[in-house]
Amino acid sequence: MLFGVFAVHSPDLCPLNNKNSRKIFLEIQGKIKATQKKFHIQKVLGFYMSVLEHEWIIILDAKSAHDVEQMCITVGISTTSTVKIVPLNDIQKTMAKLKSN
Are the C-beta atoms of 79 and 24 separated by less than 8 Å? Predict the structure, then answer.
């Protein structure tokens, strides 16, 4: 299943402005990679950020939202950000389903 992880932090917790947040952020990718198997993350499809919106967006192929939640806690994303985990659907699969109904 595909999931979008939307992590929003306040300007005072931004890695550009906060030493502790910067340390956490610089370690995030390595920690995600190191814990992928443990949390049944098949693949990280994208990791994006909107600097001025103070938001990270990570697209994952994972087994469950609960696994994604635990990964966010373990790697530190939830330390500085409010996290929303959203199931995503591939547009082609959705289009095929709509055409078949």
Answer: yes
Q: If residue 7 lies in a helix (H) or strand (E), which one and from where to where?
A: strand 2-8
Name, in order, each residue with C-beta under 8 angstroms of 47's C-beta and a sequence gap of 6 or more: 29, 56, 57, 58, 59
For the domain that residue 16 is a member of, what is the CATH number?
A: 3.30.70.1060
Domain coverage including residue 36: 2-100
For residue 6 the two structure tokens come to 């939307």
Per-residue confidence in pLDDT tens, the chain, 101 aa: 999 999 999 999 999 999 999 999 999 999 999 999 999 999 999 999 999 999 999 999 999 999 999 999 999 999 999 999 999 998 998 899 899 97
